[in-house]
From TrEMBL:
Role summary: Decomposes hydrogen peroxide into water and oxygen; serves to protect cells from the toxic effects of hydrogen peroxide.
Residue spans crossing the bilayer: none
PROSITE patterns membership: CATALASE_1 (PS00437), CATALASE_2 (PS00438), CATALASE_3 (PS51402)
InterPro entries: Catalase, Catalase_AS, Catalase_clade2, Catalase_clade2_helical, Catalase_core, Catalase_haem_BS, Catalase_immune_responsive, Catalase_large_C
SUPFAM superfamilies recorded: Class I glutamine amidotransferase-like, Heme-dependent catalase-like
Entry EC number(s): 1.11.1.6
Keyword terms of this UniProt record: Heme, Hydrogen peroxide, Iron, Metal-binding, Oxidoreductase, Peroxidase
Catalysed reactions listed for this entry: 2 H2O2 = O2 + 2 H2O
Residues annotated as catalytic: H71, N143
Protein name: Catalase
Listed cofactors: heme
Length: 703
């Protein structure tokens, strides 16, 4: 048997050192430009002959098996989409006609982590909807953030490689707080806007049901006359947009890594069907170049102040999968799954995704993935494809080609019967074939600044804290300093505050290496940017404290011990359930709870099995249980931590000494029954705000 040293010698021939080497393809061909796909002109469509791009993406798509390379951890549900407005002047898509109801399957996911990672990672969330229309399946494959890290699909494998666990040690899992991610984004100024979103509360949603969804890219709607209108897709949740605190997210990951998955499943099982309104931002073809930014740039959004979102329909998720693997895991999404009336644009990231997603599904699920029940179109499929991996359909006859006469020319072109088939929008293209990017894509900091300035003070502080946390995990000080230079281009105060936490003075100018890479894309970089139309945008913040809210489906912990007054428990339960909230009794132990009057109730939750981070608000009822709770460290931990995370707390008359023993300060988020006839209304009103974020600094207590 050969010893370890000889085995090591055997492996020497396979060790590769990239130092001072020219970037090449897998065939050793030197690569001139690894930042741009081959296009017709700077803003034109990508070309199928780009073998360097295909070689890179084909390899990337096959790097993980059997789970998805990205969006591996997800949850899904069935539902219905109802179109409520008439937009026939913009599109001939049948499912987008007023009054039409369409079955859907929606999948939510994290991006970076493996299938077994936590739901509460700081990450982008996938938000993809498959519409089973009468003209075939249409997939709206989006995220809970309206922009993306990169502008061209050729950089997508690099982005994901950087955020995945580092290949030499396979950690950290489902986290961006490490060297390789920040190395990549600090060298790619185009990522600045998206990174700002990822460092915000948007990357820590309270629930899938409380996330916005976005199509990210600019698409086209096509009407019956062939006229195109640019469109951005938005999903607006009926329950509002809400997040958890970063400290809370880390603890939830420990207590229940399936927090979002369980939340979605149980809400649907309980009949609390999640709903989103579909909104459209519509831009006339002639207004394509109207704005200070390029609408085909996927790192840019269109502020709603410039183009309002028109609400046109509602999606309701009302049925859980019968089998997670058969449905959620095998659901295959692809932005190239289009129907008549919708088309893609020349966005270079979208152009690459259309290839990559289809290739990934073919590799992962087999060449007949569209025959798996969850992916089958409701109107059937008819073509002459008869072979391939995992074939399920049995096609009769001897014909497997088109055109043919043996099968009577069937199946036939839609045009032969005067029916509408899918046609790409007739777009004039006349430009040189090249690897370049439009200079209109070169403003990287204006919209990042817009997003930061549009956040409330607490939201800005959360972003500062997130950058400080993430960059503190980066071991290379050069990378930290390089990213601080990026932040200084966005907002000097942001850079100074993050720099102070890292003991680094933020450089005023971009790092030379960053500029070197940027100038390989645009020789004149940085450019003189246009004055933005909007300095702040209300739509970029989350729900405002004074916004009309709801506590529907929120979980409220009723914290008790034996001897509690039953009426004190029942009164708040009735009030909360009338508002649509869930009242959950938590006691010192599971099993029978003995009320002060001697009656019993079976309890499923205890301070040992549950944690405050799993609940939205807290109520302590009155009774002899107070003396028990005074000496219960787990109870005190519950209320102290709830207070720290800016949640609403209410205390029944006679429980005041519990607060005195805790770390809780009496502020606008703490309600007492004693001497307050309207205490229940106040409690609910505070809960409708989701959190009292504006007094977060005053609530900094150990928990």
């Amino acid at each position: 048997m050969k010893n370890n040293s000889s085995k090591k010698e055997q492996l020497k021939d396979y060790l590769i050192d990239n130092d001072e080497k020219i970037l090449t393809t897998n065939d050793g061909v030197p690569i001139h430009d690894n930042n741009n796909t081959l296009k017709v002109g700077q803003r034109g469509p990508s070309l199928q002959q780009d073998h360097i791009f295909f070689d890179k993406l084909l390899h990337f798509d096959r790097e993980r098996i059997p789970e998805r390379v990205v969006h591996a951890r997800g949850s899904g549900a069935h539902g219905i989409f109802e179109m409520k407005e008439d937009i026939s002047e913009f599109t001939c898509a049948k499912f987008l006609q007023k009054g039409v109801k369409t079955d859907v399957f929606t999948r939510f996911s994290t991006v970076a982590g493996f299938k077994g990672s936590t739901d509460l990672a700081r990450d982008v969330r996938g938000f993809s909807v498959k519409f089973y229309t009468e003209d075939g399946n249409y997939d709206l494959v989006g995220n809970n953030i309206p922009v993306f890290f990169i502008q061209d699909a050729i950089n997508f494998p690099d982005l994901i490689h950087s955020v995945k666990p580092e290949p030499n040690n396979e950690y950290p899992q489902a986290a961006s707080a490490h060297n390789t991610f920040w190395d990549f984004v600090s060298l790619m100024p185009e990522s600045a806007h998206m990174v700002m979103w990822a460092m915000s509360d948007r990357a820590l949603p309270r629930s899938f049901r409380m996330m916005e969804g976005f199509g990210v890219h600019t698409f086209k709607l096509i009407n019956n006359k062939g006229k195109a209108t640019f469109v951005k897709f938005h999903w607006k949740p009926k329950l509002g947009v809400h997040s958890v605190a970063w400290d809370e997210a880390q603890k939830i990951s420990g207590y229940n890594s399936d927090f979002h998955r369980q939340d979605l499943y149980e809400a649907i099982e309980n009949g609390d069907f999640p709903q989103w309104d579909l909104g459209l931002q519509l831009i006339a073809e002639e207004d394509e170049f109207k704005f200070s930014f390029d609408i085909l740039d996927p790192t840019k959004l269109i502020p709603e102040e410039l183009v309002p979102v028109k609400i046109v329909g509602t999606m309701t998720l009302n049925r859980n999968p019968e089998n997670f693997f058969s449905e959620t895991e095998q659901a295959a999404f692809d932005p190239g799954r289009l129907v008549p009336g919708i088309d893609i644009t020349d966005d270079p990231l979208l152009q690459g995704r259309v290839f990559s997603y289809m290739d990934t599904q073919n590799y992962r699920l087999g060449s007949n993935f569209h025959e798996i029940p969850i992916n089958r179109p409701i109107n059937g499929k008819h073509n002459n494809q008869k072979d391939g991996k995992s074939r399920m359909d049995i096609l009769k006859g001897n014909v497997s080609y088109f055109p043919n006469s043996q099968a009577g020319g069937c199946p036939y072109h839609a045009m032969l019967k005067g029916e509408n088939g899918f046609e790409s929008h007739a777009q004039k293209v006349n430009a040189h074939k090249l690897r370049q990017r439009s200079i209109s894509f070169a403003d990287h900091f204006t919209q990042a600044r817009l997003f930061f300035h549009s956040q409330p003070k607490t939201g800005q502080q959360h972003i500062i804290d997130a950058y400080s946390f993430e960059l503190s995990k980066v071991k290379d000080p050069v990378i930290r300093k390089r990213e601080l230079a990026i932040l200084n281009q966005i907002d000097s105060d942001l850079a100074k505050k993050v720099g102070k936490n890292l003991n680094i003075e933020p450089p005023k100018e971009l790092d030379e290496l960053t500029l070197k890479f940027a100038r390989q894309i645009w020789s004149q970089y940085p450019i003189k940017v246009k004055k933005p139309e909007v300095e702040k945008s209300k739509s970029l913040g989350m729900d405002l404290p004074d916004a009309k809210g709801t506590i529907a489906t929120r979980k409220v912990a009723i914290l008790v011990a034996d001897g509690v007054v039953k009426k004190s428990v029942d009164t708040i339960k009735i009030i909360l359930e009338k508002e649509g909230a869930q009242a959950v009794i938590i006691s010192t132990k599971v099993g029978p709870l003995i009320y002060e009057d001697g009656s019993h109730e079976e309890i499923q939750h205890s301070y040992l099995t549950d944690a405050s981070v799993l609940y939205d608000a807290f109520y302590t009822p009155s009774g002899k249980n107070v003396d028990t709770l005074l000496d219960n460290a787990d109870y005190l931990q519950f209320i102290n931590e709830g207070f720290k995370h800016c949640k609403a707390l209410a205390f029944a008359e006679g429980t005041e000494k519990l607060v005195e023993k805790s770390l809780i300060k009496k502020d606008c988020g703490v309600v007492f029954e004693k001497g307050n006839k309207n205490w229940t209304l106040q409690f609910i009103d505070i809960m409708k705000q989701h959190r009292v974020w504006d007094i977060e600094m005053d609530r900094k207590v150990p928990a």
